[in-house]
Automatic annotation (TrEMBL):
InterPro entries per UniProt: Zf-like (IPR007212)
Taxonomy of the source species: Archaea, Methanobacteriati, Methanobacteriota, Methanomada group, Methanococci
One Pfam family in the UniProt entry: zf-like
Domain of life from the UniProt record: Archaea
Name assigned to this protein: Cysteine-rich small domain
Domain Cysteine-rich small positions: 15-87
Source organism of this protein record: Methanococcus vannielii (strain ATCC 35089 / DSM 1224 / JCM 13029 / OCM 148 / SB)
């Protein structure tokens, strides 16, 4: 394998599969997909997947510590497929700007939930 291809493959594998080299792995469960280490739907405020917790100062913040949904390989891949399909004709920067639309992101999440389910069980 060509060196550049090998380096690129390493990046893909560490991002899209279970990144066992990460110091926090497994942050949710063993064999999780690490593609969405930082959830594009945060805060989803979906109480099946997460919860509001109190900070030390008494204010509330959304916690997704117990969310397994987005780390399931089939869910993670479907989110990527949906986002890729919606941004095929856009530059990376335009894609990011386009995906800043919270309503659009929640539509993607809901579409995937309808297609693949919303179970948080692993």
């Amino acid at each position: 394998m060509h060196g550049l291809a090998k380096n690129h493959l390493k990046k893909i594998l560490s991002t899209c599969s279970a990144n066992r080299d990460c110091e926090y792995y497994p942050c949710h469960y063993n064999n999780q997909s690490c593609l969405w280490c930082y959830c594009p739907f945060y805060p989803c405020e979906d109480e099946v997947l997460g919860e509001f917790v109190k900070r030390k100062d008494g204010t509330l913040i959304w916690s997704c510590m117990k969310c397994n949904w987005i780390h399931k390989p089939d869910i993670a891949a479907e989110i990527l497929r949906e986002i890729t399909e919606l941004t095929l004709d856009k530059t990376t920067e335009c894609s990011i700007d386009y995906l800043e639309n919270r309503e659009l992101l929640m539509q993607i999440k809901n579409k995937i939930e309808k297609k693949l389910g919303k179970s948080n069980a692993i």
